[in-house]
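Lecture 7 notes: from sequence to structure.

We start with a single chain of 188 residues. Read the sequence below before looking at the structure.
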Amino acid sequence: MATREELNAARLFVEKANRLLKSTFLKEAAVNMGWTLSGKKDEAVRIEHRGPRWENVEAFVLTFRFFIQDNESISIRNMAKVFSSDLATPGERRRFYEIRESLNKYLDGSSMFKEGARTASRREVMDVFIYGGMSHAKPKKKEKFDAWMRHVLLGPMTTTEFTTILSTVLSAIENIQRICVTLLYRYA
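Now the structure, written as C-alpha cells:
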C-alpha cells in the first residue's frame, strides 16, 4: 500500500516540475540558445552567449535544485523510494530507472571543456555553476566558476553548456513527472 509520504513526494514532484516547465528560462532557451564567435582583422576574437537571461536562469535553478539535492524528498535519487514502493507498477518502475540511468550517464559524460589534460563532466559544469556561482559559494567551485567567467571564450561557452545541461535534465524531469501523474491518477 502506498504511503502518504510517497504520494506527497509524487505530488510535489509534479508541482515543481510544472513550475519549471512554465518558466521564462525554458521559453528563452527554446528561442535562440548557443554562442556566437565573431571578430575582425586586427581585433580580438569575441564570443557571446545567446540564451536565457541570467536572472531567469537563477530563478529556474531555485526550483531546479529540488530535483538534484538529496535533502529534498523529490530529488531524482530520492524518488527511487516512490518507484521502489508498491505505488508504482513494474513498468513504471522500470521506466523510472531507465530515465535515471540515462540521465546519470549523460551527466557523467564529457562536456566540451578541457582543464589541462582532463575533460570536465557535464555534472561538474552543472555543480560549478549551481554551487559555485548561483546558489552557494563553495570555495573550490566558486574559484573555478570565477575563473571560467573571467575567460573571454570559456565564460560564454560554459554558460551555453550549462543552459543546455539544465534543459536536458529538465527533459528527464518531465518524463518522470508523466509517470508520477499516472501514479497519482490511480490513487485519486
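The two ends are 14 Å apart (CA to CA). Keep this in mind for problem set 3.
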